[in-house]
């Protein structure tokens, strides 16, 4: 015998056999008037730019850019109500050019019929591709619609230049602790839309824990408050007392703001890189854990640490690169969560290692010459000569084999003629680079002596020395 879900779970049934739908607390508590809006005072305080625009009812197409729960959608609704415009909204995840055309056609008809404007809210506008964004251009230009885009991503990266030039970008900030406290208290007092008639008491310590977990997100704060209230039993006095333990139990775990392909991704890796470069192991561990605990690919972090080992530590501590490669292999071998410690070990080592970007600078200069200067042929004495024809053409002629020279030092030039004298690598003297600098100076001084002696009258040029028997002779190897 089969049963419906409502028969099996009678608690789900309402008066008509089903539980009446009730919007989430965050939706019920959405401000209906501008003076109920909390936060974003840098835009909405008297005299501020958006406040003045609303007072004068001269609203233009714009983008609200800010973190989740900062009020982007709510502000769009309030703006529409303020200027008495028709309001349309859709999400870029679900809509396309077809839906845009339908809204635009309706907006044109509305404007012809009664002169009423249309505000179109596009949530997650960064998810529209270029063609979809271009579809807005003429209609924003001629005022058919007032476009309000909402995004958590940097518009500079995600909105094409043609559309962005027609929009004003307003940056919203994560709500402060005081803002969240005000929003929570209003929800607890409001008997019509909030929890005011349900006997919910939020202890002061519990409110602090809730605000900490919400992390500046009003929607997250209200959702967590509602969940904690629903899952907390009624006490003997008829009240639901929300303790810090009740909040943590409802939250299970703090959700970290992170987008593995968006701006926050690059902000966090930038913070990690700069903390490593600044020699701060504590900050390095913090930013590393922010990324890993939010779900970042540990191999991406490992790749960045490997890059840092060469770019910012370099030969000041050659062991840094080996340690980072070992950390990458550890992540491959044991996975997470154990692999996090290998990355943490590498990060702390890099933070405390001596720093030098001499290799980074040297390679950049060499690459600039390689790509911008004339690509000269390899000098004959440096060419490989594995065949008789090549040797007859002079390949390898005049090459001085260092192993046959005193102190393995020869006076030959190894750069093309137009680049002779170029100096790319300039070790800074930090850590092991002090030894490398000493070696480099000795080599340059020794070669200069040999070149000066060679220029003396009567000095015989050294004969070309073939490779010794131990030297590689296979095809393609050094001759």
Question: In terms of topology, how is this protein built?
Answer:
Layout: H1 5-8, H2 25-28, H3 41-44, H4 49-55, E1 62-65, H5 72-83, E2 86-91, H6 97-114, E3 118-123, H7 130-134, H8 137-141, E4 146-151, H9 155-158, H10 161-164, E5 168-171, H11 177-189, E6 200-202, H12 204-214, H13 218-231, E7 240-242, H14 244-251, H15 263-277, H16 281-293, H17 298-313, H18 319-334, H19 339-352, H20 358-372, H21 388-392, H22 433-454
Parallel strand pairs: 1-4, 1-5, 2-3, 3-4, 6-7
Helix pairs in contact: 11-12, 11-13, 12-13, 12-14, 13-14, 15-16, 15-17, 16-19, 17-18, 17-19, 18-19
Structure description:
With 479 residues, this protein is an alpha/beta fold. It has four domains: 40-171, Rossmann fold (3-Layer(aba) Sandwich); 177-251, Helicase, Ruva Protein, domain 3, CATH 1.10.8; 263-355, Zinc Finger, Delta Prime, domain 3 (Up-down Bundle); 383-454, post-AAA+ oligomerization domain-like (Orthogonal Bundle). It has 22 helices and seven strands. It has helices spanning 5-8, 25-28, 41-44, 49-55, 72-83, 97-114, 130-134, 137-141, 155-158, 161-164, 177-189, 204-214, 218-231, 244-251, 263-277, 281-293, 298-313, 319-334, 339-352, 358-372, 388-392, 433-454, and strands at 62-65, 86-91, 118-123, 146-151, 168-171, 200-202, 240-242. The strands form two sheets. A five-stranded parallel β-sheet has the order 2-3-4-1-5. A two-stranded parallel sheet has the order 6-7. Helix 6 links the parallel strand 2 and strand 3. Helix 11 (177-189) crosses helix 12 (204-214), helix 11 packs across helix 13 and helix 16 runs antiparallel to helix 19. The chain is elongated and about 105 Å long. Residues 1-19 and 467-479 have low confidence and may be disordered.
């Amino acid at each position: 015998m089969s049963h419906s879900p409502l028969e099996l779970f009678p608690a789900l049934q309402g008066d008509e056999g089903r539980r009446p739908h009730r919007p989430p607390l965050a939706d019920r508590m959405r401000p209906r008037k501008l003076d109920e809006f909390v936060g974003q005072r840098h835009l909405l305080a008297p005299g501020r730019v958006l406040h003045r625009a609303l007072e004068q009812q001269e609203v233009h197409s714009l983008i609200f850019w800010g973190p989740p729960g900062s009020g982007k959608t709510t502000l769009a609704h309030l703006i529409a109500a303020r200027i008495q415009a028709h309001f349309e909204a859709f999400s870029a995840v679900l809509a396309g050019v077809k839906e845009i055309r339908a809204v635009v056609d309706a907006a044109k008809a509305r404007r012809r019929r009664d002169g009423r404007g249309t505000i179109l809210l596009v949530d997650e506008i960064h998810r529209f591709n270029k063609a979809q964004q271009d579809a807005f251009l003429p209609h924003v230009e001629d005022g058919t619609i007032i476009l309000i885009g909402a995004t958590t991503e940097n518009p500079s990266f995600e909105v094409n230049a043609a559309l962005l030039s027609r929009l004003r970008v307003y940056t919203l900030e994560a709500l402060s602790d005081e803002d969240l406290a005000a929003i929570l208290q209003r929800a607890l007092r409001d008997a019509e839309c909030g929890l005011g008639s349900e006997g919910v008491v939020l202890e002061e310590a519990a409110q602090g824990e809730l605000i900490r977990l919400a992390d500046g997100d009003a929607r997250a704060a209200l959702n967590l408050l509602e969940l904690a209230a629903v899952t907390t039993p009624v006490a003997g006095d008829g009240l639901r007392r929300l303790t810090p333990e009740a909040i943590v139990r409802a939250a299970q775990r703090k959700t970290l703001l992170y987008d593995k392909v968006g701006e926050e991704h690059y902000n966090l890796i930038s913070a990690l890189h700069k903390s490593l470069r600044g020699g701060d192991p504590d900050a390095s561990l913090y930013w590393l854990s922010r990324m890993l605990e939010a779900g970042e690919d540990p191999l991406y972090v490992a790749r960045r640490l490997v890059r840092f080992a060469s770019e910012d530590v370099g030969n000041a501590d050659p062991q840094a690169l080996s340690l980072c490669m070992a950390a990458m292999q550890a992540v491959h071998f044991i996975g997470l969560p154990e692999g996090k410690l290998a990355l943490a070990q590498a990060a702390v080592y890099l933070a405390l290692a001596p720093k030098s970007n001499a290799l980074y600078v040297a390679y950049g200069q060499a690459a600039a010459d390689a790509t911008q200067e004339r690509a000269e042929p390899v000098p004959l004495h440096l060419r490989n000569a594995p065949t008789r024809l090549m040797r007859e053409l002079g390949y390898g002629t005049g090459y001085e084999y260092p192993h046959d020279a005193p102190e393995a030092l020869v006076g030959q030039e190894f750069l093309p003629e137009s680049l002779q004298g170029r100096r790319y690598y300039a070790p800074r003297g930090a850590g092991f680079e002090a030894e490398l600098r000493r070696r480099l100076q000795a080599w340059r001084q020794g070669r200069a002596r040999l070149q000066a002696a060679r220029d003396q009258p009567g000095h015989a040029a050294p004969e070309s020395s073939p490779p010794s028997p131990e030297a590689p002779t296979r095809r393609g190897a050094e001759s």
